[in-house]
Design goal:
about 40% helix, about 400 residues, 14 helices, alpha/beta, Rossmann fold, globular, 6-stranded parallel sheet, about 20% strand, 7-stranded parallel sheet
Amino acid sequence: MRQRVAHVITRCTAGAGGVAVRGALSLPRDRYESTLIAGSGDVLLDAAREQGVEVIVVPELVSPISPVRDARALSILTELMRGEAFDVVHTHSAKAGVLGRVAASRSGAGRIVHTLHGFPWHEFQPAPVRGTYVRIERRLSRITDSYLAVGTAVAVEAVRRRIARPEQIITIGPAVDAPTVTLSPATRLRARALLGLSEGDLVVGTVGRMDYQKAPEVLLDAIARMARPARLVWVGGGPLAETVAARARRLGLGDRVLLLGHREDVPLLLPAFDVFAMSSRYEGLPCAIVEAQACGIPVVATAVNAVPDVVVPGESGMLVAPQDAGQLAAALDFALGHPATAARWADTAARRLGERYDTRTLGQTLREVYSGPDEPTTPSALTPVHPWGAAS
Protein backbone atom coordinates (compact mmCIF):
# COMPACT_ATOMS: atom_id res chain seq x y z
CA MET A 1 0.00 0.00 0.00
CA ARG A 2 1.35 3.41 -0.94
CA GLN A 3 2.13 6.04 1.69
CA ARG A 4 0.16 9.24 1.29
CA VAL A 5 2.37 12.33 1.65
CA ALA A 6 1.25 15.96 1.87
CA HIS A 7 3.86 18.56 0.94
CA VAL A 8 2.75 21.92 2.38
CA ILE A 9 4.25 25.28 1.40
CA THR A 10 3.11 28.88 1.58
CA ARG A 11 4.34 30.18 -1.80
CA CYS A 12 5.31 27.47 -4.25
CA THR A 13 7.83 29.64 -6.05
CA ALA A 14 11.58 30.09 -6.37
CA GLY A 15 14.04 28.01 -4.36
CA ALA A 16 11.87 26.57 -1.59
CA GLY A 17 9.05 25.83 -4.01
CA GLY A 18 11.44 24.09 -6.35
CA VAL A 19 12.82 21.94 -3.54
CA ALA A 20 9.29 20.98 -2.44
CA VAL A 21 8.20 20.03 -5.96
CA ARG A 22 11.43 18.18 -6.76
CA GLY A 23 11.07 16.29 -3.49
CA ALA A 24 7.55 15.18 -4.38
CA LEU A 25 8.64 14.12 -7.85
CA SER A 26 11.67 12.24 -6.52
CA LEU A 27 9.53 9.72 -4.66
CA PRO A 28 8.82 6.39 -6.40
CA ARG A 29 5.18 6.27 -7.55
CA ASP A 30 4.75 2.64 -6.56
CA ARG A 31 5.43 3.50 -2.90
CA TYR A 32 4.22 7.08 -2.43
CA GLU A 33 1.22 9.18 -3.42
CA SER A 34 2.04 12.90 -3.17
CA THR A 35 -0.27 15.87 -2.70
CA LEU A 36 1.08 19.41 -2.90
CA ILE A 37 -0.79 21.96 -0.76
CA ALA A 38 0.14 25.59 -1.38
CA GLY A 39 -1.20 29.03 -0.62
CA SER A 40 -0.09 30.27 -4.03
CA GLY A 41 2.42 29.43 -6.72
CA ASP A 42 3.59 29.79 -10.27
CA VAL A 43 4.64 27.41 -13.03
CA LEU A 44 5.94 25.01 -10.39
CA LEU A 45 2.34 24.09 -9.58
CA ASP A 46 1.72 23.36 -13.25
CA ALA A 47 4.89 21.24 -13.40
CA ALA A 48 3.74 19.24 -10.40
CA ARG A 49 0.30 18.64 -11.92
CA GLU A 50 1.81 17.58 -15.23
CA GLN A 51 3.93 14.99 -13.41
CA GLY A 52 0.93 13.47 -11.66
CA VAL A 53 1.09 15.24 -8.29
CA GLU A 54 -2.27 16.34 -6.91
CA VAL A 55 -2.22 20.09 -6.25
CA ILE A 56 -4.53 21.82 -3.77
CA VAL A 57 -4.43 25.63 -3.47
CA VAL A 58 -5.48 27.18 -0.16
CA PRO A 59 -5.58 30.97 -0.83
CA GLU A 60 -5.94 31.72 2.87
CA LEU A 61 -2.38 30.45 3.42
CA VAL A 62 -0.37 33.66 3.05
CA SER A 63 3.09 34.79 4.15
CA PRO A 64 2.25 37.97 6.11
CA ILE A 65 0.90 37.51 9.63
CA SER A 66 -2.89 37.85 9.36
CA PRO A 67 -4.79 36.52 12.40
CA VAL A 68 -8.11 36.16 10.58
CA ARG A 69 -6.70 34.48 7.46
CA ASP A 70 -4.28 32.40 9.53
CA ALA A 71 -7.12 31.04 11.66
CA ARG A 72 -9.11 30.26 8.54
CA ALA A 73 -6.12 28.59 6.87
CA LEU A 74 -5.49 26.45 9.97
CA SER A 75 -9.11 25.32 9.99
CA ILE A 76 -9.04 24.46 6.27
CA LEU A 77 -5.74 22.59 6.55
CA THR A 78 -6.93 20.62 9.60
CA GLU A 79 -10.15 19.51 7.92
CA LEU A 80 -8.31 18.69 4.71
CA MET A 81 -5.74 16.55 6.51
CA ARG A 82 -8.40 14.76 8.56
CA GLY A 83 -10.29 13.91 5.39
CA GLU A 84 -7.24 12.75 3.46
CA ALA A 85 -5.62 10.82 6.35
CA PHE A 86 -2.04 11.48 5.26
CA ASP A 87 0.67 9.14 6.48
CA VAL A 88 3.27 11.94 6.28
CA VAL A 89 2.88 15.70 6.35
CA HIS A 90 6.01 17.51 5.15
CA THR A 91 6.00 21.28 5.56
CA HIS A 92 8.19 23.99 4.05
CA SER A 93 8.61 27.73 4.83
CA ALA A 94 7.71 29.65 7.97
CA LYS A 95 3.95 30.13 7.79
CA ALA A 96 3.17 26.74 6.25
CA GLY A 97 5.59 25.26 8.77
CA VAL A 98 3.54 26.62 11.66
CA LEU A 99 0.00 26.08 10.40
CA GLY A 100 0.78 22.87 8.52
CA ARG A 101 2.39 21.15 11.50
CA VAL A 102 -0.35 22.21 13.90
CA ALA A 103 -2.99 20.98 11.44
CA ALA A 104 -1.10 17.72 10.96
CA SER A 105 -0.90 17.17 14.71
CA ARG A 106 -4.59 17.87 15.18
CA SER A 107 -5.53 15.53 12.33
CA GLY A 108 -3.40 12.65 13.60
CA ALA A 109 -0.88 12.45 10.76
CA GLY A 110 1.50 9.51 11.02
CA ARG A 111 4.73 11.54 10.71
CA ILE A 112 5.40 15.26 10.67
CA VAL A 113 8.49 16.49 8.84
CA HIS A 114 9.64 20.08 8.39
CA THR A 115 12.31 21.46 6.06
CA LEU A 116 14.23 24.44 7.42
CA HIS A 117 15.08 26.49 4.33
CA GLY A 118 16.28 29.18 6.70
CA PHE A 119 14.61 30.96 9.60
CA PRO A 120 12.01 33.73 9.88
CA TRP A 121 14.35 35.64 12.19
CA HIS A 122 17.57 37.45 11.39
CA GLU A 123 20.03 39.91 12.91
CA PHE A 124 18.28 42.96 11.44
CA GLN A 125 15.09 42.40 13.47
CA PRO A 126 14.37 43.73 16.98
CA ALA A 127 15.42 41.21 19.62
CA PRO A 128 11.85 40.69 20.95
CA VAL A 129 10.69 39.67 17.47
CA ARG A 130 13.53 37.17 17.12
CA GLY A 131 12.77 35.79 20.57
CA THR A 132 9.11 35.26 19.73
CA TYR A 133 9.96 33.35 16.55
CA VAL A 134 12.41 31.13 18.43
CA ARG A 135 9.86 30.33 21.14
CA ILE A 136 7.27 29.38 18.52
CA GLU A 137 9.72 27.06 16.78
CA ARG A 138 10.69 25.43 20.07
CA ARG A 139 7.04 24.63 20.77
CA LEU A 140 6.59 23.25 17.29
CA SER A 141 9.50 20.86 17.83
CA ARG A 142 7.27 18.95 20.27
CA ILE A 143 5.03 17.87 17.39
CA THR A 144 7.76 17.47 14.75
CA ASP A 145 9.24 14.03 14.14
CA SER A 146 12.09 15.05 11.82
CA TYR A 147 13.76 18.17 10.45
CA LEU A 148 15.63 18.57 7.18
CA ALA A 149 17.99 21.55 7.26
CA VAL A 150 19.08 23.13 4.00
CA GLY A 151 22.74 23.69 4.82
CA THR A 152 25.11 23.13 7.71
CA ALA A 153 24.71 26.53 9.37
CA VAL A 154 20.92 26.16 9.37
CA ALA A 155 21.19 22.77 11.11
CA VAL A 156 23.74 24.15 13.58
CA GLU A 157 21.51 27.08 14.54
CA ALA A 158 18.49 24.81 14.95
CA VAL A 159 20.41 22.64 17.40
CA ARG A 160 22.14 25.56 19.15
CA ARG A 161 18.84 27.33 19.75
CA ARG A 162 17.27 24.06 20.96
CA ILE A 163 14.70 24.06 18.18
CA ALA A 164 15.60 20.59 16.98
CA ARG A 165 17.00 17.80 19.09
CA PRO A 166 20.20 16.32 17.65
CA GLU A 167 18.51 13.07 16.67
CA GLN A 168 15.71 14.93 14.87
CA ILE A 169 17.73 16.78 12.27
CA ILE A 170 19.41 15.85 8.99
CA THR A 171 21.39 18.27 6.84
CA ILE A 172 20.61 18.20 3.13
CA GLY A 173 21.54 20.24 0.09
CA PRO A 174 18.81 22.09 -1.81
CA ALA A 175 18.11 19.82 -4.76
CA VAL A 176 18.46 21.39 -8.19
CA ASP A 177 17.94 19.94 -11.63
CA ALA A 178 21.02 18.88 -13.55
CA PRO A 179 22.23 21.83 -15.63
CA THR A 180 20.90 21.81 -19.18
CA VAL A 181 23.28 24.61 -20.18
CA THR A 182 26.85 25.16 -19.01
CA LEU A 183 29.25 28.00 -19.67
CA SER A 184 31.05 27.96 -23.01
CA PRO A 185 31.89 30.58 -25.66
CA ALA A 186 28.80 29.53 -27.62
CA THR A 187 26.36 29.58 -24.70
CA ARG A 188 27.79 32.90 -23.53
CA LEU A 189 27.23 34.51 -26.96
CA ARG A 190 23.70 33.10 -27.19
CA ALA A 191 22.78 34.31 -23.69
CA ARG A 192 24.11 37.78 -24.32
CA ALA A 193 22.25 37.97 -27.62
CA LEU A 194 19.02 37.09 -25.78
CA LEU A 195 19.66 39.99 -23.38
CA GLY A 196 20.92 42.48 -25.95
CA LEU A 197 24.38 42.57 -24.35
CA SER A 198 27.66 42.81 -26.20
CA GLU A 199 30.64 40.50 -25.81
CA GLY A 200 32.66 43.28 -24.21
CA ASP A 201 30.14 44.13 -21.48
CA LEU A 202 31.08 43.37 -17.87
CA VAL A 203 27.99 41.64 -16.49
CA VAL A 204 27.00 41.05 -12.88
CA GLY A 205 23.89 38.91 -12.66
CA THR A 206 21.56 37.59 -10.02
CA VAL A 207 18.38 35.55 -9.77
CA GLY A 208 15.94 36.07 -6.93
CA ARG A 209 12.82 37.69 -5.58
CA MET A 210 13.02 41.45 -5.12
CA ASP A 211 12.16 41.78 -1.44
CA TYR A 212 13.72 42.88 1.84
CA GLN A 213 15.52 39.57 2.32
CA LYS A 214 17.41 39.87 -0.97
CA ALA A 215 18.50 43.49 -0.29
CA PRO A 216 18.31 44.65 -3.94
CA GLU A 217 19.12 48.23 -2.94
CA VAL A 218 22.49 47.06 -1.58
CA LEU A 219 23.38 45.41 -4.88
CA LEU A 220 22.35 48.54 -6.80
CA ASP A 221 24.48 50.71 -4.53
CA ALA A 222 27.41 48.33 -5.04
CA ILE A 223 27.07 48.55 -8.83
CA ALA A 224 27.07 52.35 -8.55
CA ARG A 225 30.26 52.29 -6.42
CA MET A 226 32.25 49.87 -8.57
CA ALA A 227 35.40 51.12 -10.25
CA ARG A 228 34.52 49.00 -13.29
CA PRO A 229 31.40 50.02 -15.25
CA ALA A 230 29.55 46.73 -14.91
CA ARG A 231 26.00 46.09 -16.02
CA LEU A 232 23.53 44.44 -13.66
CA VAL A 233 21.02 41.81 -14.79
CA TRP A 234 18.37 40.92 -12.20
CA VAL A 235 16.10 37.98 -13.02
CA GLY A 236 13.01 37.86 -10.81
CA GLY A 237 10.10 40.01 -9.76
CA GLY A 238 8.71 40.84 -6.36
CA PRO A 239 7.19 43.56 -4.20
CA LEU A 240 10.21 45.89 -4.52
CA ALA A 241 10.44 45.79 -8.32
CA GLU A 242 9.16 49.34 -8.85
CA THR A 243 11.23 50.70 -5.97
CA VAL A 244 14.36 49.08 -7.38
CA ALA A 245 13.71 50.54 -10.84
CA ALA A 246 13.26 54.02 -9.35
CA ARG A 247 16.44 53.70 -7.30
CA ALA A 248 18.40 52.62 -10.36
CA ARG A 249 17.27 55.77 -12.15
CA ARG A 250 18.21 57.98 -9.18
CA LEU A 251 21.67 56.43 -9.10
CA GLY A 252 22.13 57.12 -12.81
CA LEU A 253 22.17 53.40 -13.59
CA GLY A 254 19.14 53.29 -15.83
CA ASP A 255 20.98 52.16 -18.96
CA ARG A 256 23.23 49.75 -17.02
CA VAL A 257 20.54 47.80 -15.19
CA LEU A 258 18.28 45.17 -16.77
CA LEU A 259 15.36 44.18 -14.55
CA LEU A 260 13.93 41.17 -16.34
CA GLY A 261 11.16 40.13 -13.96
CA HIS A 262 10.14 36.50 -13.88
CA ARG A 263 11.70 34.37 -16.62
CA GLU A 264 11.30 30.72 -17.54
CA ASP A 265 14.62 30.56 -19.42
CA VAL A 266 17.04 31.17 -16.53
CA PRO A 267 19.37 28.28 -17.50
CA LEU A 268 19.82 29.87 -20.92
CA LEU A 269 20.60 33.29 -19.38
CA LEU A 270 23.15 32.29 -16.73
CA PRO A 271 26.11 32.01 -19.18
CA ALA A 272 25.72 35.73 -19.91
CA PHE A 273 27.00 36.54 -16.40
CA ASP A 274 30.66 37.20 -15.68
CA VAL A 275 29.86 36.99 -11.97
CA PHE A 276 26.79 35.83 -10.07
CA ALA A 277 26.11 38.15 -7.12
CA MET A 278 23.91 37.68 -4.06
CA SER A 279 23.32 40.57 -1.66
CA SER A 280 20.86 38.90 0.75
CA ARG A 281 20.52 39.92 4.37
CA TYR A 282 19.66 36.34 5.33
CA GLU A 283 19.17 33.04 3.51
CA GLY A 284 19.11 29.32 3.93
CA LEU A 285 21.12 28.10 0.98
CA PRO A 286 19.74 29.57 -2.27
CA CYS A 287 19.19 27.15 -5.14
CA ALA A 288 20.16 29.99 -7.49
CA ILE A 289 23.74 29.94 -6.21
CA VAL A 290 24.01 26.18 -6.69
CA GLU A 291 22.55 26.50 -10.20
CA ALA A 292 25.04 29.26 -11.09
CA GLN A 293 27.95 27.19 -9.82
CA ALA A 294 26.74 24.11 -11.71
CA CYS A 295 26.64 26.25 -14.84
CA GLY A 296 30.24 27.39 -14.26
CA ILE A 297 29.67 30.99 -13.10
CA PRO A 298 31.86 32.40 -10.27
CA VAL A 299 29.93 33.64 -7.24
CA VAL A 300 30.25 36.62 -4.90
CA ALA A 301 27.72 36.44 -2.05
CA THR A 302 26.97 37.64 1.44
CA ALA A 303 28.29 35.54 4.32
CA VAL A 304 24.92 34.49 5.72
CA ASN A 305 23.49 31.24 7.06
CA ALA A 306 24.48 28.20 4.96
CA VAL A 307 25.88 30.04 1.93
CA PRO A 308 29.47 29.13 3.04
CA ASP A 309 28.58 25.47 2.42
CA VAL A 310 29.12 26.15 -1.28
CA VAL A 311 30.90 29.51 -1.37
CA VAL A 312 34.18 28.91 0.46
CA PRO A 313 36.16 32.18 0.58
CA GLY A 314 39.09 32.14 -1.79
CA GLU A 315 38.39 28.58 -2.90
CA SER A 316 34.98 28.44 -4.54
CA GLY A 317 33.96 32.08 -4.47
CA MET A 318 34.07 35.23 -2.38
CA LEU A 319 32.00 36.24 0.64
CA VAL A 320 31.20 39.73 1.94
CA ALA A 321 29.35 41.15 4.92
CA PRO A 322 25.60 41.74 4.46
CA GLN A 323 24.38 45.32 4.04
CA ASP A 324 27.86 46.54 3.06
CA ALA A 325 27.62 47.94 -0.46
CA GLY A 326 31.22 49.15 -0.41
CA GLN A 327 32.60 45.72 0.41
CA LEU A 328 30.36 44.09 -2.18
CA ALA A 329 31.50 46.60 -4.81
CA ALA A 330 35.16 45.87 -4.05
CA ALA A 331 34.58 42.12 -4.23
CA LEU A 332 32.82 42.39 -7.59
CA ASP A 333 35.62 44.61 -8.91
CA PHE A 334 38.14 42.00 -7.78
CA ALA A 335 36.28 39.13 -9.45
CA LEU A 336 35.94 41.03 -12.73
CA GLY A 337 39.54 42.21 -12.58
CA HIS A 338 40.95 38.73 -11.93
CA PRO A 339 39.12 36.47 -14.40
CA ALA A 340 41.60 33.58 -14.03
CA THR A 341 41.04 33.52 -10.27
CA ALA A 342 37.28 33.77 -10.70
CA ALA A 343 37.36 30.91 -13.23
CA ARG A 344 39.28 28.79 -10.73
CA TRP A 345 36.60 29.48 -8.10
CA ALA A 346 33.93 28.36 -10.57
CA ASP A 347 35.78 25.17 -11.48
CA THR A 348 36.31 24.27 -7.83
CA ALA A 349 32.68 24.98 -6.96
CA ALA A 350 31.28 22.88 -9.81
CA ARG A 351 33.59 20.00 -8.93
CA ARG A 352 32.61 20.05 -5.25
CA LEU A 353 28.85 20.02 -5.82
CA GLY A 354 28.95 16.30 -6.59
CA GLU A 355 25.74 14.42 -5.83
CA ARG A 356 24.86 16.37 -2.69
CA TYR A 357 22.51 18.73 -4.55
CA ASP A 358 21.05 16.07 -6.83
CA THR A 359 17.34 15.25 -6.89
CA ARG A 360 18.11 11.54 -6.54
CA THR A 361 19.99 12.24 -3.29
CA LEU A 362 17.00 14.20 -1.97
CA GLY A 363 14.64 11.37 -2.88
CA GLN A 364 16.72 8.81 -1.01
CA THR A 365 16.85 11.06 2.07
CA LEU A 366 13.09 11.63 1.99
CA ARG A 367 12.39 7.90 1.80
CA GLU A 368 14.56 7.31 4.84
CA VAL A 369 13.00 10.16 6.81
CA TYR A 370 9.43 9.21 5.90
CA SER A 371 10.07 5.62 7.02
CA GLY A 372 11.17 6.87 10.42
CA PRO A 373 13.63 5.37 12.93
CA ASP A 374 13.55 1.74 14.00
CA GLU A 375 11.23 2.62 16.88
CA PRO A 376 9.28 5.68 15.73
CA THR A 377 7.32 7.87 18.09
CA THR A 378 3.63 7.11 17.70
CA PRO A 379 1.22 9.96 16.95
CA SER A 380 -0.63 9.31 20.21
CA ALA A 381 2.54 10.11 22.14
CA LEU A 382 2.68 13.57 20.60
CA THR A 383 0.82 16.28 22.46
CA PRO A 384 -0.82 18.64 19.94
CA VAL A 385 0.32 22.12 20.91
CA HIS A 386 -0.69 25.39 19.28
CA PRO A 387 2.50 27.46 18.76
CA TRP A 388 0.95 30.47 20.44
CA GLY A 389 0.02 28.52 23.55
CA ALA A 390 -3.56 27.33 23.02
CA ALA A 391 -4.10 23.61 23.31
CA SER A 392 -5.53 22.01 20.20
